[in-house]
Amino acid sequence: MKKIIFLTLLTIINYSIKGQNKGIVVEINHLYDGELLNLDSTYILGNNIPIRFDRIEYYIHLNSLISNQNIATDLIDKYILVNANQNNYNIGEIELLDDDLISLNFNIGVEYNLNHADPSLQDSSHPLAPQLPSMHWGWAAGYRFVALEGMIDKNQDSVMETVFQYHPVDDSYYSDTITCNGIIENENNVTIFINANYDRLIENIGTDEGGVYHGIHEENGLLMDNFSRNNVFTVPENLNLKETLISNTVFPNPFSNTIQLNLNENSIVKVYNSIGILVDAYKLDKGQQQINTQTLLNGVYILSLQSKSGTENIKLLKN
């Protein structure tokens, strides 16, 4: 009986450490040439041709979250239908095999089995359910992995007269794996921050000539290659974090060689760098405490204070 009890307790302890559920959120900043992109606004191609985007939608297939210990939590059939009009995507709660997450692996497109399934069988809220305008080409062909549409002023006479449309449709267009390192994790949630740079997406694919490319075309292949090979997805420099008002006292900010804390409760204090990688962690008692930061490089850091009352985050600058 004692052996049975021991094994049961061991299982419970292991589950509490490695089986924690956390909410997953993806935040995407839609950019063109470093500026926030708005549909129906005018931008400039590299050869000074004005361009306007009317529709930007594409499927992200979320594959796995990787921890600092290189343990992967697979994300089964998790998809985002990205729309340039939306920044925040709530994926739901996931049971993580490990914490201290450092990266997300994903692909652009829909994997083979789901690409040829019946969209009407999906729950209406699922990204792969029927959409308006449609993202599905038919059972045989599958989904439009991307719907990129707009106009250019080809002759530069201040009139947008030339259409461009890219609708890649084929299993071969499923992209190579892309890795994002912009992760901030706290006690209850994991947020992945991504910059999507659409000037890089249309680089060297002939958009300045316009054209309608639906299905299988060389131009669609070049577009899909850019997703994984032309640094379309990058990490926000400062992660665009919304700071939480905190009741604990943290100073100075900016800091140099130490951070002073006056903690209201016993806390776990984690220090993340600007791309979301955990660089230090401390278990500190209530009251006045000090963290030595001499080894940290200059830059932006996120201090995460975790206690029984919840988790509080604050951005700090070392200079």
Description of the molecule:
The chain is mostly beta strands and 319 residues long. The protein folds into two domains: 21-234, no CATH class; 249-318, Macroglobulin (MG2) domain (Immunoglobulin-like, Sandwich). 12% of the residues lie in helices and 47% in strands. It has four helices and 23 strands. The strands form five sheets. Strands 3, 4, 5, 7, 10, 11, 12 and 15 form an eight-stranded mixed β-sheet that branches. Strands 1, 2, 6, 13, 14 and 16 form a six-stranded mixed β-sheet that branches. It has a four-stranded antiparallel β-sheet with strand order 20-19-22-23, with no helix packed on it. Strand 8 (136-138) and strand 9 (142-143) form a beta hairpin. The longest helix is centred in the N-terminal third of the chain and has 17 residues, at 2-18. It is globular. Residues 1-17 and 240-246 have low confidence and may be disordered.
Outline:
With 319 residues, the chain is mostly beta strands.
Question: Top keywords for this entry?
Answer:
disordered N terminus; Immunoglobulin-like; single chain; 6-stranded mixed sheet; 4 helices; mainly beta; 8-stranded mixed sheet; 47% strand; 319 residues; 2 domains
